């Protein structure tokens, strides 16, 4: 069924309610972005769902691959709002979006105004065809829709004041840097050691300086810039480790490690159950080169095979034949948990103690809101010209994560 022709007044009232919710939860803050959210008819861009669903704060699936994995969506409004706040579009800006759906391009067109321009690009012809049709239907035919692999940007209309990527990237493509104007901004959901953060970078001479970051989730990049996670099965499909392509982690020596005696060490560090551990996870990733993400099925937790900090898994470290991971137990009050570490294998006591020492170090200096900053240099940059911090080398980039 095609719902795009739903009663505009009804759709408008649902849109106002969604906008109010996004303001309440802090995702929408700036006046012009609020106005754009009140104006752009999201239901036109997701004609496959009824208007009540179009104006729910949720992602809408548009296309899956043969395995059922999502490959194209119209993004969740709260994530769109947070990224637009990071992007800080001004009237007159020239904008390139990589990953089309129509909706975000229409919002950006409202923000860039008639003196600015928006080009949206997608690798999938079905998506560009739909984006072109729905943008025209919603009154945004001035948005340019291009079918191309975003790895190479869109040189025809460069330079851009903003390049905004709406698909998970494992790297920063050289074309994005080259096609930014001298003071241009790049907003990109970058996957780093199992977590995806939308990082807003400012172009700063020969490198990019991170200005803000928020956790988010997107479908994976296809094409020349595709970057796949390595999935290492530790126990059937119930306990798996996930690592980035550049991490030389070998799990062969870990065969049967979960059945070996366990060392448990508690840190005395208490966290609110509802707090995110994302900065702690990144801190551990910066301090343990063989950091990976442990994903577990509920049945593996129930059977006592693993006891991770979060019921779906979390931070883990591999050292030769030893596996350690972040764990938690109930704290002195219902809303609190105490963090600790569990480890199995020949050096389990040392690894559990090291993990706990790093949890304490993080809590002392960074546990209360101060996160790291990100800087991206071309891969060829000499090491002595990089800022102090943890350096992650990808195909094109030297990313530095610096803790203040
Ligand atoms: C989350 S959707 C984009 C959502 C959209 N910005 C919106 O308005 O809601 C991600 C899109 O990225 C596209 N994509 C994946 N890899 C790409 C690539 N290398 N170049 C361009 N587009 C790509 C997918 O086809 C998919 O349509």
TrEMBL record:
Keywords (alphabetical) are: Cytoplasm, Methyltransferase, S-adenosyl-L-methionine, Transferase
Q: Which Pfam families match?
A: PCMT
Q: Name the Enzyme Commission number(s) assigned to this protein.
A: 2.1.1.77
Report the top EC class in one word: transferase
- Taxonomic superkingdom: Bacteria
Has UniProt tagged this entry with the keyword Chloroplast? no
Gene Ontology molecular function: protein-L-isoaspartate (D-aspartate) O-methyltransferase activity
Q: Which GO terms describe its biological process?
A: methylation
Task: Please classify the protein's predominant subcellular localization into one broad category.
Answer: cytoplasm
Q: Which InterPro entries match?
A: Methyltran_FxLD, PCMT, SAM-dependent_MTases_sf
Read off the Gene3D superfamilies from this record: Vaccinia Virus protein VP39
Q: Where is the protein situated, by its record's location annotation? A: Cytoplasm
Please provide, in alphabetical order, the Gene Ontology terms of the cellular component aspect for this entry.
cytoplasm
Record has Oxidoreductase as a keyword: no
Q: State the family it belongs to.
A: Belongs to the methyltransferase superfamily. L-isoaspartyl/D-aspartyl protein methyltransferase family.
What is this protein's name? Protein-L-isoaspartate O-methyltransferase
Query: What is the source species?
Result: Kribbella caucasensis
